[in-house]
Amino acid sequence: MDIVMDADALNEFLSSEFPQVAAEYRVERVDRSRLMVRLKVGEAHLRPGGTVSGPSIFALADLAVYCAILARIGPVALAVTTNASIDFMRKPEAGKDLIAECRVLKLGRVLAVAEALIYSKGGAEPVARCSMTYSIPPKR
After folding, report:
1. Residue 10 to residues 30, 37, 93, 96: CA-CA distances in angstroms?
2. pLDDT tens, position by position, for the chain (140 residues)?
3. Which of 106, 28, 112, 109 lies closest to 66, judged by CA?
4. Do 21 and 60 touch, CB atoms closer than 8 A?
5. Where exactly are the structural domains of the chain?
6. Where is the Thioesterase domain positioned along the sequence (predicted)?
7. CATH number for the segment(s) 7-135
């Protein structure tokens, strides 16, 4: 699959279309096989006990899949999640950002399927695994 939006273009797109969350995320790498996004973990992402909340982990996975798809189809703001499944496998490491490694498994005309593995920065084992399907709106 060819890349039509690199990391800089994706970060610029997030800043313009989703300024409410863009400062929390950074697309760090895009290539033909995968995309990497960082969640800059802060107080707003923590739950009691000092761990990153499930909704924050899910949001990272969703944003990573969205960006991985846009990297291949271009800036289509209205592509939306139609199905998602997430497995929380272990507690994220305290005080560390989270990294999503995402790959697109199938890219069709109207549906895309991708998966994301979420890691604590520098960690060897994933803290979560997510599978998602996105609906791609028809071209005008």
Report:
1. 9, 10, 27, 23
2. 689 999 999 999 999 999 999 999 999 999 999 999 999 999 999 988 888 999 999 999 999 999 999 999 999 889 999 999 999 999 998 789 999 999 999 999 999 999 999 999 999 999 999 999 999 998 77
3. 112
4. no
5. 7-135
6. 49-125
7. 3.10.129.10
